[in-house]
């Protein structure tokens, strides 16, 4: 639902990534201060606190690029490209952290890459200009940064609890927002940001369950399992496009979506 909320509120109300990023940043600040002032969950004097904060900075960065992608393309196609995230996590784990390679993730990498190529070919009828596709280029950047954020979250969970990781990283999201907004200030906010808060509340819930799952499993496998969201994104995007087109109207080609799910 978060993917669909993002698309709906971005296109209908917020209009620009600037407004969406600003709302997410200040909502994250609100949550951070609420927990910091009224609970003892957040302790900024703890060693290694920079890890979840840095994760939050990367988090808002990849969200910005993701919003750029879904603004001008189908949310289903952009969501499918999130499949690159476990590939980057696998590569970073091997080259940067010295983790071993197992046959299942490596095999999955080839399947994901083949699936993305197949999905693009079924849409465009050719692979000739795939390197010029803006959505793919932007989502590769988004998933690379997303992989960095996930690895830092995983590292954070070695020293911090699920709640500490979640709420401290909200502070990092706000800091990242302060970095990003000046860089995209040329985007004038054409709409209103307030409706986007519904999407942000939903996203916070998603992050809670993602971090819980991450605390119990391997980061490569967890990021791979997250890709099952594609099934729900495609199902609900089809239903909304068919029965509630005022909320979402996508160029829905059924066999493309089936290929992407496979």
Fold and architecture overview:
This protein has 262 residues and is mainly alpha-helical. The chain has 12 helices and no strands. Helix 8 crosses helix 9. The two termini are 20 Å apart.
Structural features:
262 residues, mainly alpha, 12 helices, 0% strand
Give a short summary of the structure:
By secondary structure, the chain is mainly α.
Kindly report the average pLDDT value.
Answer: 84
Structural class based on helices, strands and sheet pairing: mainly alpha
Characterize the largest beta sheet: strand count, sense, and whether it forms a barrel.
Answer: none
Low-confidence stretches: none
Tally of separate helices: 12
Secondary-structure element string: HHHHHHHHHHHH
Radius of gyration: 18 Å
Number of strands: 0
Name the overall outline.
globular
Question: Distance between the terminal alpha carbons, to the nearest Å?
Answer: 20 Å
**Relative helix content:** over 70%
List the helices and strands and how they pair.
Elements: H1 2-14, H2 17-38, H3 50-71, H4 75-81, H5 84-95, H6 103-124, H7 134-156, H8 162-183, H9 197-216, H10 219-225, H11 229-243, H12 254-261
Helix pairs in contact: 1-9, 2-3, 2-8, 3-4, 3-7, 3-8, 4-11, 5-6, 5-7, 5-10, 6-12, 8-9, 11-12
